[in-house]
What does this fold into?
Amino acid sequence: MKAAPAKAKALFSHRQLYLAWAVVSAVGLTVARYIDPYVFGFSAFGAAFVSGFLILGAVVLSWRLWPWAVLSAIPTVLAFMLLSTYRWA
It folds into this structure.
């Protein structure tokens, strides 16, 4: 039973995971923005869920890399800032 936490700790201790998520979320949110505002909104909420999971995992399992996890959430924050400018009604 100790193999799973060791694998999770090894996964969360690499900067490449956070940088890859930052790139994937930035590209995905950019593509979703041009499809439809609702697709963009739901994509932003999905990206926020994954970013939150990464930040929690970084804090719990590898606290030294939490700044990288916060860095990977910047595209999601920018997406929510852009969503706040839309006129929905």
Notes: The mean pLDDT is 88. DSSP finds five helices and no strands in the chain.
